[in-house]
Design a protein that fits this description.
Length: about 160
């Protein structure tokens, strides 16, 4: 309970440096308000959520890997870790350990995913409450959609390079 109060209201507080990541000088972990980070996916996998519920302790942030986030045109969004972010949220954690994801590959795919989220009304991690689905549905409704979009965007990039 004390940890929740300590984290409440924190914004960008640097904790320590973790080392190097591709495309970055250093990868710094810091706390960021969870309500200010947009999801970049439409669903959570129910089996993964159930598995992580037994393994992941949101209150023990010192043993949890930070979640990757990006910032594009004043929008901060998750690039991975949506299930862990959901568990942080439902544990009452208001600021979570994150780091800036500096990898610029697939930015166009993330931007498309953010558009999908906007269309579906997904702006915050708590919006996943009614969007937890079976593994088969997750594969069909989310993974396949991302694969198709990625292939389409790759073709567009290739066409743009040739023009």
């Amino acid at each position: 309970m004390l940890l929740r109060h300590i984290w409440a209201g924190l914004s960008e507080i640097r904790l320590f440096q973790l080392g190097k990541c591709s495309g970055c000088e250093t990868m710094e972990q810091f706390l960021y308000p969870i309500e200010q980070i947009r999801p970049s996916q439409l669903f959570l996998n129910e089996a993964k959520l159930q598995r992580l519920e037994g393994l992941f302790n949101p209150l023990d942030w010192t043993n949890n890997d930070p979640l990757p986030i990006k910032k594009h045109q004043q929008q901060v969004f998750f690039t991975d870790g949506h299930t862990r972010a959901y568990l942080y949220h439902w544990s009452g954690i208001t600021a979570i350990p994150v780091y800036w994801d500096c990898d610029e590959t697939n930015l166009d795919l993330y931007l498309e995913c953010l558009k999908w989220c906007e269309i579906e009304g997904i702006y915050h991690i708590e919006d996943f409450g009614q969007r937890i689905i079976s593994t088969d549905d997750y594969e069909r409704l989310w993974i396949e959609r991302c694969r198709e979009a990625s292939a389409r965007l790759s073709l567009q990039r290739k066409d743009n390079e040739e023009s």
